[in-house]
Amino acid sequence: MGCGGMLAVTIGARRPDGSRLKVVAASQTERRQPLRWRAQGRRVPNVLAALTALFGLLSLISALAPAQRDRLHELSALIPAPASATATALTAAAGVLLLQLARGLRRRKRRAWRAAVAVLALLVALHVLKGLDVEEAGLSLVLLVVLVAARAEFQAKGDPTTRMLALQAALLLPLIGLVSGMVLVTLYNERLVGDPSIWQQFKHVLLGLVGIGGPLHFTGERVSEIIAGTLLAFGLLTAFVVSYLILRPAEPRAVLTDTDERKLRGLLTAHGCRDSLGYFALRRDKSVVWSPSGKAAICYRVVTGVALASGDPLGDPEAWPGAIEAFLQLAREHAWTPAVVACGEAAGVAWQRVGLDALELGDEAVVEVGDFTLQGRAMRNVRQMVGRVERASYVAQVRRLRDLSRDEVAGLRSAAAAWRGAQTERGFSMALGRFGDALDGDCVVVTAHQDGVLRALLNFVPWGADGLSLDLMRRDRTAEPGLNEFLIVRLLETAPGLGVRRVSLNFAAFRSALERGERLGAGPVTRLFARVLLFASRWWQIETLYRFNAKFRPIWEPRYVCFPTTRDVPRVAVAALEAEAYLNRPRPFQRLCGRSPF
């Protein structure tokens, strides 16, 4: 079914010209709706994760704290002192491991559950062997039984991760070992021989992590064995975890295969005119999930445990339910939070039908080429800016990418990178993330030259057969103000010759809130929210993009963000900001906070 066909999942959706699309029943073969998303029962995994972390901390403290003398006397009659010291060291390492596993349990990871069960079973014996700590052994046994009883709650597959986690483990675990060793030496300070300096204590701990004796001496053989065994256990734990992370199979990264990209381009050819953001699904840092029929697809990226899709599903709307069901099933299997950013009204209805909530995120500015004119009072500002740029000897060129030579494309790419400078490349839902690829020949490139020198560049991706969507906007910062307006006007004037009837410009986040805040009689809450947005515009150009788009008298098309529950909003918001590169935490820190290696 082409773009001119019927839309089966749309209720009250609007075309760019403002007219309403009719509601049409789906065919019998595509009528089946996906199962409604139900947030997995988080209470039991959350409680067990918290208990596991608490018990891990208790085990670590128990291992570091001096044992009771009467129990040590009884224990020495049963097992040799070296075995007790080794059990103490292993208890400390197991406590740290439980603290790490708690994150995986919170996300219902099966591998984390298996590892936690094994560690708790080991701790039952270790707590007894290290000092007859039957209380801790009993708690370990109780928690073990509860975890086994709740095994059905932990069915999520492990996340694919990169070997960057090996570097994280190599830095984090020794640091924990150093801190724990220094704490342990401090606790046994009264048993130290002499008055060693802090540097000598640090050196002793550092050497102990690799099994080498240090400069410190203690009164009592058991104390020396406990400290040496604990430090060696941390060293062995670090070596084991780092080796595992390095030697396991490499991570499958979020990329589109050539086959996937070819099939997606086929869907865009047949149905690309439905969504102005459809072409951005071809970003090669996304993964794709297909409907069973192969007639629809959803492209997404996993960010800090959120499976983040963008725009509308690609393909035939009657096949959207199958793609949505496959996407939600994938999220269930991995315990990801499903979310969608910048989808249109039709897709918002489809996601709402499967149990996700929808919230208006902002508006996309769409200009109808046939209705655009520079005449009239409303366009006075744009008309003056264009005139000023023309008088400064600027000349615009509007061409398809395929009509540019390789050398010219390389020059444009180099100039765009230079103009961006050290700023982070932003974009996920409304940016292609590349320029000049041979497969993107239908893109339209608009350039500005002054006396033969390149001064600005705009890139537009195809929106079906008769539309364009703004992708890239770069200019020399020393160029004349109003140069971007000049290039957009020249594109709109040239568009009929390219067979283009509509052009999508920048997205204006929270546009309606800003507009309502300016109206006469706006309430205090509305005005306050508008002021907050104006304040945030100092960093995120919220108002700037709205004002820029409004100059061209566009049709405002709402875009939505979809999420499972209100409590997921902060997590989804952080994931979306990271995907769009508005939050730029160090990548190792992102993975450490958002994913567990289990």
Structure description:
- The protein is an alpha+beta fold.
- The protein folds into three domains: about 45-245, no CATH class; about 260-365 and about 560-595, Aminopeptidase, CATH 3.40.630.30; about 390-560, Aminopeptidase.
- The chain is about 50% helix and about 15% strand.
- The protein contains 19 helices and twelve strands.
- Strands 1, 2, 3, 4, 5, 6, 7, 8, 9, 10, 11 and 12 form a twelve-stranded mixed beta sheet that branches.
- Helix 3 packs antiparallel against helix 4.
- The radius of gyration is 31 Å and the shape is elongated.
Number of strands: 12
The dominant shape is: elongated
- The helicity comes to 40-55%
Structural class: alpha+beta
- Supply the number of structural domains: 3
β-strand percent reads 5-15%
Low-confidence stretches: 4-34, 68-75, 588-598
